[in-house]
Amino acid sequence: MIRKFCFAMTDFLLRFRSRALICSFVALLLALPSYAKDKADLLVVHGTVVTMDAQRRIIDDGALAVRADSIVAIGKSEDIESRYEALKIIDARGGIIMPGLINGHAHAAMSLFRGIADDLALDEWLNKYIFPAEARNVTEDFVVWATRLSLLEMLRGGTTTYCDMYYFEDAVARVTKEAGMRGVLAETIIDFPAPDNKTTQQAFDYTQKFLDHWKADPLITAAVGPHSIYTLSEKTLQDSAALARRNHAPIAIHIAEAPFELQQSREKHGATPVAYLERIGLLGPDVIGAHCIWVDAADIAILTHFGVGCTHNPSSNMKTAAGVMPVVDMLAAGQAIGLATDGAASNNNQDMFEEMDLAAKLQKIARRDPRVLPAQQVVEMATIGGARALHLEKQIGSLEAGKKADFILIEIGAPHSTPMYNVYSSLVYAQKAADVRTVVINGKIVVEDRRMLTLNEPEILAKAE
Predict the structure, then answer these.
(1) Minimal CB count within 10 Å: which of 267, 337, 353, 391?
(2) What residue spans of 281-427 are helical by DSSP H?
(3) pTM of this prediction?
(4) How many CB atoms lie within 10 A of CB 418?
């Protein structure tokens, strides 16, 4: 509009042969390109945009504009390119632009235990192998390098946010921040000597310092991680919740993961794990519950009532024969359900594309119904549903103006994903982690054209080996 006006005015002034005025208007016209468009730091254009917004819009030949750490506009490429200019432009032709995947439950530092104890039930795996191995091997240096190894795998596979629960969590936060990744990171509280803290009081003191250190960080949300009802006394569980709530921090906890936990809870507390946690006052809208397999209708109603987010870990639960989370019933009840890998010692990878595929198929075979948990619902669990489960849906999980710029670019057209009739079906049943081309978190590119920009991949792999 302004350019048309200037052209018209220049034509008008030519009639009066006013050289000075004509020169002024021509100078203004030449300067207009730098003022006519809004500034952005990054434009991603000409891709299929899977927004995961409330309308679940899919924008063909879509684009988004990023300024600082946030999305400022999303729409058709023609519209975005006409309104914004940026020094950095990513051509997403032949690709899917979607929210970054959210891994709702992991033990990142357990990547160095990958494969040490497989084909075992959960209680035997934990008590005979994992807890002893952690006591012998886990140091802060171990945690640093093992976490970097998991971050490398997750980032390459399109995960932009993860929820962790382990020891030396301050070190986990440090390397997560260095990698440019978003994390909800919980320091484990457990009622026996742990690798980082030998007493429960030491664990509480460490956790308080950890919470103070990372308060208001743009990428790191420090959390409290009471391990489970079978490793903690009632007092420690209540004290953990009190510590978290004094600091307005999330609570990450394993809930109803295995048959032995359900049996022990009934024998010891006369209630299911969920009913027991309700009774002692731990449940609330700040709780992130991992697994939530052994829950009945009453338990689901309790979890939903208290706004607890739950995360489904299909690979890990299948491998330990822990059971099948009643995802369909929980979603129908309005429960916030995310998707997760668990640790690499019980999975044995951190591949969220594999979890999407397995989540859909596990529910179908368990219910003998191919129609349950369709592909779109699974993508929701890995994005906006995962954000709700972590209580971060106002910041991440969908591509919308005002939300954090956490998104990935996935290449399509490989033999395993051609042709593509339905984008959700392709994401769940055909695409692979290796198809992720570019990863942006908080407005910063961390993986570009499959090149890792924030982690030293050769060094990490050599150190891990």
Answers:
(1) 267
(2) 297-305, 314-319, 327-332, 352-367, 375-382, 384-389, 423-425
(3) 0.92
(4) 10
